[in-house]
Amino acid sequence: MLQPYLSEAGQANSAIWQAIEKQTAELTDRGLRVLLIARHPDPKLLIDQGDESRLPEDMQPIGLISLSDELARRSQRNAAALQRRGVQPQDHLRGQSGNVGGASPQAGLPDDITLVSGLELNEMSGRAICGGAQKATIFGAHHAAAKKKN
Predict the structure, then answer these.
(1) pLDDT of 111 higher than 80
(2) What is the CA 20 to chain-centroid distance, rounded?
(3) What is the pTM of this model?
(4) Where are the alpha helices (DSSP H) in the chain?
């Protein structure tokens, strides 16, 4: 996350950060993924050091980019038809835990669905995973290392 590198703009009580959070929440509530774009006034400080690379302090936020997941054209209609027939659609997502549920508004799923992130799955026992699968609508990715432990 860029917030620690934004100096004053990244302070929780700054008007800039509050505006970023507000707009990000509005976009993610619609099922969009949001990227914060930042720059530094001295590009010479942006040095590629491979895995050891670090951002300099005093980065400046310059915008947000929102992206939608590409869903099948009929996904909303299909989800609604399944729900009318008493079927509870489930989505087993791959990717980062913060993405769990991101596409559900676009697919027409209701707001009151139960989500289980990959991080939550990694902490669950095998029995808890089975119980969660019966209750949850959307599942995050479950890491292979965690599967071995269960």
Answers:
(1) no
(2) 16
(3) 0.53
(4) 15-29, 75-84, 104-107, 118-123, 126-135, 144-149
